[in-house]
Design goal:
- The chain is 39% helix and 23% strand.
- The chain is an alpha+beta fold.
- The chain has six domains: 38 residues, no CATH class; 113 residues, Immunoglobulin-like (Sandwich), CATH 2.60.40; 100 residues, Serine Threonine Protein Phosphatase 5, Tetratricopeptide repeat; 137 residues, no CATH class; 49 residues; 58 residues, SH3 type barrels, CATH 2.30.30.
- Strand 19 and strand 20 form a beta hairpin.
């Protein structure tokens, strides 16, 4: 495959093949030399036309050409490196395609990487891609715009000039402007530990089987209570006891009243109304129940024909259902409420931690930090320990260590004003780091606890026979809180670390002389994949490499 580089007439010399053949089959036979040749070939190379040629055309010839100009990171910190890629793909002399002319903005440093060429020979010619990569480091704050690229070429297939234009790239650098750092000797107020781990200690401290019991107990209690009531209503009668319809109605009505008041037969009409109201039944329903009981007694013990049995039966059924829906705690509801009370009773404060504030107040902040770190290691679910550790580290000058501790505290107490004020003292990180260290306003433990309470409340409403849309709304809220807890818990479980070294870099291999894949600004977050010895395999925004374990801090 020939690509002429200059116009003119060229003569391609003949192709020659030399070989020899013996005259006879004898080993000593003489050989005759043969040398066939092809015809020479003449090649006329025409110059590229001048009509329509762009002013800054550099001679590129290609067909089906495409240009991509991209970067993975658009928000960076000052001094952080970004990889910018220009990719050419199409048909032609791929190796000789010139580099695009990029107008880099001021305040940036550009380090070109090795050019990659990938060729593929097809029946219709040579195809391939040519990749130009640049490591871009921005040294100033603000928005830096890389203008759009324009790439001119001549298409021999269409016999015309064409141009490719890309979109511009805008890079935003964020962080704290240059200036004096916060005074490390400033005394941040400490948080006094008033209790134990609270909600987090309850949720994560219980065994898995306790949660299964809590989840299954409410529906089991409701279903068991309803089954027991149904069995009592349908219990078989002895052969010599064949009650009349009125006796059955009286028995059912008496049981419904007995679930609400004690010894209802001993109460007169007004007394029964008062007792039912005290049990939580609406007054109109209570008065209706008293009237129905009088009519039922009149039909059972008075003269025959005074009351229509069918009409009385329908009225007894209606008032009994009203009593079932409006009565106080019955057997199945009692079990549900008991479960809820058990859940509330188990949320008790833990043992108060010992104090290391004296070291902090006397200025021995490093010793105080060690004490707070030990305290946080022993009780990792107490936000105050992590906040105090961050305050001590901040006074020692370790801002990144303080940030990691305060992030841990914020995950346990996201609505604590003192913790959020402490995080505001730190420089504003890039968008990728903020996304990786995002803090929810509700902790996973709170979301799971709310889902459990709503779950129990939903089954309590089922036991009380409340409206279906109310029950459905409560269960929907329970599922929503459970989903939120799962999402936030999965986010917090992602192994994230903050780069603490001044010259943090991802390397191709776990040794110091390995080539740097990416430079990382101190305080930027990376995902931790695994650890081998003193090295950690980390990744950030599509780049993956090794970093020393002592150069990162995990929240």
């Amino acid at each position: 495959m020939v690509f002429p580089l200059t116009p003119g007439s060229f003569s391609i010399s003949p192709a020659t093949v030399s070989y020899s053949l013996p005259l006879t089959y004898s080993f000593l036979s003489r050989e005759v030399q043969h040398e066939p040749q092809s015809e020479p070939r003449d090649l006329d190379v025409l110059p590229q036309p001048t009509s329509g040629r762009p002013i800054d055309f550099d001679g590129t010839s290609a067909s089906n050409l495409e240009l991509q100009f991209t970067t993975l990171d658009t928000t960076l910190a000052v001094g952080e490196a970004a990889t910018v890629t220009a990719l050419l793909s199409g048909k032609g002399n791929v190796a000789l395609w010139p580099e695009p002319n990029i107008d880099w903005p001021e305040g940036t440093r550009v380090y070109p990487d090795a050019v990659e060429v990938d060729l593929e020979s097809r029946d219709d010619g040579m195809w391939g891609t040519k990749t130009f990569r640049y490591l871009l480091v921005i040294d100033s704050y603000g928005t830096h715009r890389i203008p759009e690229l324009t790439y001119h070429y001549y298409d021999p297939t269409q016999q015309e000039y064409a141009s490719l234009t890309t979109l511009p790239i805008e890079l935003v650098t964020e962080g704290r402007p240059p200036g004096p750092a916060p005074v490390n000797s400033s005394r941040l107020p400490l948080t006094i530990v008033q209790g134990g781990a609270g909600v987090a200690g309850v949720v994560w401290g219980w065994a898995w089987w306790i949660w299964i019991v809590i989840i299954l107990a409410p529906p089991a209690a409701v279903l068991t209570g309803r089954l027991a009531m149904r069995l009592r209503r349908n219990e078989p009668l002895a052969e010599h006891e064949v009650p009349t319809k009125l006796e059955l109605l009286e028995s059912r009505f008496g049981k419904a009243l007995g679930m609400l008041v004690r010894d209802p037969e001993a109460l007169d009409g007004d007394g029964l109304v008062g007792a039912l109201c005290a049990a939580g039944v609406d007054k109109s329903v209570s008065e209706h129940a008293a009237r129905v009981r009088e009519r039922l007694w009149q039909a059972s013990y008075g003269p025959e024909g005074g009351v229509d049995p069918e009409e009385l039966s329908a009225e007894v059924v209606a008032v009994t259902e009203s009593l079932d829906a409006g009565r106080a705690v019955g057997p199945q509801q009692g079990a549900v409420v008991a479960t809820a009370l058990l859940l509330a009773a188990l949320i008790v404060p833990g043992v108060e931690a010992q104090s290391a504030e004296r070291l902090y107040d006397t200025g021995a902040v490093q010793e105080a930090a060690d004490s707070f770190r030990l305290r946080a290691t022993n009780d990792p679910l107490i936000a105050a320990h992590w906040y105090n550790l961050g305050s001590a580290l901040y006074r020692t000058g370790d801002e990144i260590g303080a940030e990691a501790a305060w992030i841990r505290a914020a995950r346990l107490a996201p609505r604590n004003g003192r913790v959020r004020e402490a995080l505001d003292l730190l420089p504003r990180r890039d968008r990728t780091t903020r996304q990786m260290t995002w803090i929810s306003r509700i902790t996973p433990a709170e979301a799971f606890l709310a889902a459990t309470v709503l779950w129990i409340a939903g089954w309590t409403l089922v036991g009380f026979r409340r409206r279906k849309w109310v029950v459905a709304a409560v269960f929907a809220l329970s599922l929503a809180f459970a989903a939120l807890g799962v999402r936030v818990k999965a986010h917090y479980n992602s192994p994230v670390a903050l780069v603490s070294g001044e010259n943090g870099s991802l390397r191709e291999a776990p040794y110091g002389s390995a080539r740097t894949v990416r430079l990382i600004e101190p305080g930027s977050a990376v995902y931790v994949d695994r650890r081998e010895g003193d090295w950690i395999l980390a990744r950030r925004a599509g780049d993956r490499g090794w970093v020393l374990a002592n150069e990162v801090v995990q929240p």
